[in-house]
Design a protein that fits this description.
The structure holds two protein chains of two kinds. By secondary structure, chain A is mainly beta. Chain A has three helices and ten strands, in the order αβββββαβββββα. Chain A has a single domain, classed as OB fold (Dihydrolipoamide Acetyltransferase, E2P) (Beta Barrel), CATH 2.40.50. Chain A is 7% helix and 43% strand. In chain B, 39% of the residues lie in helices and 25% in strands. In chain B, the strands form five sheets. A six-stranded mixed sheet of chain B has the order 14-18-19-17-16-15. Chain B has a five-stranded mixed sheet with strand order 6-8-9-11-10. The longest helix of chain B is centred in the middle third of the chain and has 27 residues. The two termini of chain B are 64 Å apart. Classes of the chains: A mainly beta, B alpha+beta. Chains A and B meet through strand 4, strand 5 and strand 7 of A and helix 9, strand 21 and strand 22 of B.
């Protein structure tokens, strides 16, 4: 389903890629991903969500986050991979996303947390942007390897309007 | 315009129909001028000025004019006699001259005016024409409507009383702060229901712990009071929407050539802000309907032995946890034959079915049914009562209609005081808990499975002669197929008749705090929202109107 969403003006879209940024990084399928630290509201351990009818496979349901109903998305499945079994050690990163016209709170299930780091010189990822991976907004090189920066707004642009 | 209103307020003039129309047009013009000062509206302005001038002419008692030429007028100003002659030229004038101050000839000074005049000028003469005439005269004259003194003195005495009585102290609070407070109270309600779940018989058997049970009861009471107070903070009087109605009715009467007296009572009744805001359109629609369809043209009314002007009364009152709004006209009532014919034509009713008056009245809430013979600007486009009912239902309310031929029609709206908290029936479907709004539940039964029969694509259940569709919620929501012999059936009322919902177990009835799924996710058809149960888990609230569609809600 598509709908006319005004292109979101958020820190991620506005910041030129080659700047100093603080990232929270985590692993999904052995690959390290990062998102701007200012997007992160909190980290949660796994609570079984209440499934929502008609929701896409990657949307696991909703949880109660201090009185607020927050949807939980499996990042593995959202990126098109097979999901993992959830357990007490499964981590949920609660982030802010601009989707379908307004700011929303969303929980992201990731395989494991990595670290908080400040990086300089994020390179755009031309080979990844466009086509099937609009959610990669750049690549950061560190001593340990490459970190893919997630554009969560693009990744979840259709949140709530996707129905199987 | 203001001067006219001023005079009406002081009781010197009776507002007439025509005058009201002119004033409303004036307000419209002013609004447009304020919104877009650059747009040339010269034509409208001229028309309005003409209308206003007419307003001044048509109404009003005679003017009382006094003129005592000030000192020195004769030296510098115009000839008083010419002024008076000009006055005569404006219209019928009765002029008397006061010569009492005239001195003897010995002391007479030629340049001192001794005479004064009193005149009664016809009421139709516009004030500004007299003013223009005496523009050059510096004081010494006055122009007032006759009989002014008495009413204004009376008005001065009575006026201050209501305003001082109504002065309550207020404070402005942003709505989101109130919502935060409401959220916290919601949490408290949840906590309280959590504590209430503790089995008192088992856990509180010992006398020492009996105190806890007492405390719980008190907590329940306090929570309820707190909840009510916070709700009241968010509430607004219905006068906000009722205030729009006289205007609507007036405009419609002008357009349709009807005469309607609008009586509004109970506009102080308070409702949740959201409800009040979303009530405007349905109410206006109902009022338009009454004026357009219900109330007859003056000639027709006289022929039927009714007063020429129809009466439309709108009243509201609170009863229990609901607010009622009644809209009643004394018009011709519903044209049952026409409705039935139309419904048959559209295939909404079996051609042979006999329907009671009440059942026919219900038909007007079906989509695509309008009885107006021709499509007018006002109504009759087939988008009508079904949308009104949908709107009212989306506010958690209900609308009913009663009609007596030739005597009138009455719409009754029942609305909840707040949208944030509702009475819910907790049910178990599979291993999860869901909430069904208590308001729409008709009954819950242990179904006799022999009465189950195929009905279209799905199952139907014969209940007291009526075949109602059955929605297998365990299969639909939790993908539990197979044996549902142990299921109970909750019969709910929806837009399109009754529906039986299969559930695994009936649990408690409780107040639930409605949380939005839309805020962070989106609209899900079949769900009215979510709530948080005593154990902190999220439970989905079903929306029976959308459940009718058996294809929806596939897990």
């Amino acid at each position: 389903m598509s709908h006319p969403t005004p292109s979101p003006v958020t820190p991620s879209a506005a910041a030129p890629p080659a700047q100093r940024e603080q990232l929270l990084t985590f692993f999904v399928r052995g690959q390290e991903f990062g998102i701007e630290i200012l997007r992160v509201r909190e980290l949660q351990s796994w609570v079984e969500p209440t499934p929502i009818p008609q929701a896409p496979q990657w949307l696991k349901g909703v949880i109660n986050l201090r009185g607020e109903i927050v949807p939980i998305s499996d990042l593995r499945e959202r990126l098109g991979f097979e999901g993992l079994a959830y357990g007490p050690l499964t981590v949920v990163v609660v982030i802010r996303v601009f989707a379908s016209g307004r700011d929303r709170t969303l929980g992201l299930v990731v395989d494991a947390m990595s670290e908080v780091l400040t990086i300089e010189g994020v390179q755009p990822a031309p080979q990844l942007t466009g086509g099937d991976r609009p959610w990669a907004r750049g690549i950061a090189r560190t001593e340990k390897g490459l970190i893919t920066l997630l554009d969560v707004d693009a990744l979840f642009a259709d949140l709530g309007s996707t129905q199987d | 315009m203001e001067s006219y209103l001023d005079e009406v307020r002081a009781g010197r003039r009776q507002p007439t129909h025509e005058a009201t129309a002119v004033l409303l047009r004036g307000v419209d013009l002013l609004k447009r001028l304020v919104e877009s000062p650059d747009v040339p509206l010269a034509q409208e302005r001229q028309a309005l000025e003409a209308a206003l001038a007419r307003l001044d002419q048509v109404v009003g008692p005679p003017w009382r004019f006094t003129f005592t030429p000030p000192h020195g007028l004769l030296a510098v100003g115009p000839d008083p006699l010419k002024l008076l002659a000009g006055l005569r030229a404006l219209g019928p004038v009765q002029l008397t001259c006061d010569t009492s101050r005239l001195p003897t000839l010995a002391t007479y000074e030629p340049l001192t005016p001794y005479l004064s005049w009193e005149a009664t000028i016809d009421g139709a003469v516009a004030r500004d024409r007299v003013e223009a005439l005496f523009d050059w005269v510096d004081g010494g004259w006055s122009l007032t409507r006759q009989e002014e003194a008495a009413p204004s003195a009376a008005a001065a005495q009575t006026a201050p009383t209501p305003s001082s009585g109504a002065a309550t102290q207020t404070i402005r609070v942003p709505v989101d702060k109130l919502d935060q407070l409401m959220n916290m109270v919601g949490e408290l309600v949840i906590t309280q229901s959590m504590l209430g779940e503790v089995d008192p018989a088992r856990a509180l058997a010992q006398p020492r712990i009996a105190k806890i049970s007492e405390g719980l009861a008190q907590l329940a009471r306090n929570t309820r009071h707190l909840q009510e107070s916070v709700m009241r903070l968010r509430s607004q009087p219905l006068s906000i929407v009722f205030g729009r109605l006289p205007r609507t009715v007036h405009a419609l009467c002008e357009q349709l050539g009807k005469r309607v007296t609008l009586q509004v009572t109970g506009e102080a009744t308070e409702l949740d802000k959201t409800v009040v805001e979303r009530l405007g359109d349905p109410l206006v629609h109902l009022v338009r309907n009454c004026v357009d369809h219900g109330i007859e043209a003056p000639g027709e009314r006289l022929a039927a032995g009714k007063p020429e002007a129809g009466t439309l009364s709108i009243s509201s009152f609170t009863r229990g946890k609901d607010v009622y709004i009644e809209i009643e006209d004394d018009g011709r009532g519903l044209d049952e034959a026409a409705i039935l014919a139309k419904a048959r034509e559209r295939g909404l009713v079996e051609p042979t079915a006999e329907l009671s008056s009440a059942a026919i009245a219900q038909l007007i809430f079906l989509p695509g049914l309008s009885t107006a013979r021709q499509v007018t600007d006002v109504s009759g486009r087939g988008v009508g009562m079904d949308v009104v009912r949908q709107n009212v239902r989306s506010l958690g309310g209900e609308i009913a209609i009663t009609s007596t031929p030739k005597r009138g029609t009455k719409f009754t709206l029942r609305l909840p005081l707040t949208l944030a908290i509702m009475e819910g029936q907790l049910v178990r479907i599979g291993r999860r808990h869901y909430v069904i709004p208590l308001l729409c539940i008709v009954e819950s039964i242990q179904p006799d499975w022999s009465l189950l029969q195929p009905c279209g694509h799905h199952q139907g259940y014969r209940m007291r002669g009526e075949l109602i569709p059955v929605v297998d919620l365990p299969a639909r929501l939790e993908r539990l197929s197979g044996d549902n012999r142990h299921c109970l059936m909750v019969v709910v009322e929806t837009d399109r008749g009754r529906v039986g919902l299969l559930v695994n177990e009936l649990l408690s009835q409780q107040q639930v705090v409605v949380k939005s799924l839309e805020q962070n996710y989106g609209v899900v058809s079949g769900l009215a929202g979510a709530t948080i149960l005593g154990d902190g888990s999220v439970s989905l609230i079903l929306e029976p109107n959308a459940l009718h569609d058996a294809d929806r809600l596939a897990a």
